[in-house]
Amino acid sequence: MNETKKHSHDHDHSHWSDMDLKVKTLESLLVEKGYVDPAALDVIVETYETNVGPRNGAAVVAKAWNDEAYLERLRENASDAIAELGFTGRQGEHMQVVENKPGVHNIVVCTLCSCYPWSVLGLPPVWYKSAPYRSRVVIEPRSVLSEFGVKLPEATKITVWDSTAEMRYLVIPERPSGAKDWSEEQLAKLVTRDSMIGTGLALLPNEVPA
Fold this sequence. Notes:
Blueprint: E1 2-5, H1 13-32, H2 38-66, H3 68-76, H4 78-83, E2 95-99, E3 104-109, H5 118-121, H6 126-129, H7 131-139, H8 141-147, E4 157-162, E5 168-172, H9 184-188, H10 193-197
Parallel strand pairs: 1-4, 2-5, 3-4
Helix pairs in contact: 2-3, 7-8
């Protein structure tokens, strides 16, 4: 069973395309003049995409797993609750959490551009901004999840949340078993960027890198 939660995309998409063009032009000029090593730039981008940025969101999820009162504050006003941990900034002013539970799975997309909660997840991955993901995940979310390696029971309800300039989403993945007495710092290591978008699951305790 699939469901898509759509909201109005009241923002100027030409602005984003124009900005992308300006960034690429500047990057090309810097590389051409020898000011920037493209390989080093790729490493920096990858670091912020997968390591630095998502650690903020992982801290939010870990606290939500360990602190029922904090989870309730997230449900009531996610932006304020996230700000309690010091994570604020552009692209994260209007946040809502959606929770994965047995039989319920949430996944996030921005169908018209690439709205993304930078303050908790860092830079959006390339695939999140790609046309195939943005179009297919709404129509066939189960197939897209399968391509990410996420196999869900047929009875699981999948809800697709359409992110906008007015509202961005953070998925609270299911807490894995086997980590009952873990600290928030330990729990954060189980939380991946993809699990907070809904295209992945939290790691199992034995999957945490040594």
